[in-house]
Amino acid sequence: MKAWGYTDIGKVRSDNEDAYNVVIDTEKNIGFCIVCDGMGGAAAGNLASKIAVSTFSEIMGAGLKPGMTEKQLAEIISKAVKAANKSVHDEAARDKKLRGMGTTLVAAVISGDNIVIVNVGDSRAYRINRDGISIITRDHSLVEDMLRSGEITKEQANKHPGKNLITRAIGTDARVHEDIYSLKREDLSFVLLCTDGLTNLVTEQEILYEIMYGENNSECCRRLADIANQRGGYDNITSVLLAL
Quick one: fold of 2-243? Predict the structure, then answer.
């Protein structure tokens, strides 16, 4: 088990509001990866994503153990997400300049053969193997809701002006509702966590190609960011690749 992360400011933004962390213990066969995409203005978004990553990582570092069941992993993940939400929300309440700040969150937590994915917002997790690429998570966004209800097509969703409007976030409310997905390592070769700065500009097939056929997995996230930047780099670009 290995993991690599990369974040890029992009070609337009003056600040990077994304944050990530990777912690892998190969001897204990445990680990976690997290990616967050902050919002609420440059200073607030940057702070929100960093607080969420730090708080989530602190809870995981203290509670993640070898041999945990899917249920146990889901419980500690839910605890970590709620703690991250409280930390961001409390910080915003202390400073009126930070009111409304928040962040997306997507994370993968591994213990033995069990992998549990969590997301809040529109940062995504993908599963990748020789059979192809598929999205694990569901975007919490206005456009995703419209797409699922049949109001718009996938092609219309890609160009919709409200594409970046999310319906859930860490820190914007006192309570948060996360989605949790349980997987088995035997069904996966890779998991990719990423912000929409990547997925808005790089196709799933391009992601698949770079991961499965690129020369060096450790450079894959940088290569994907390079592709996004070649197409305008309109947002910060962050991804973490987990090799199982």
Answer: Phosphatase 2c; domain 1 (3.60.40)
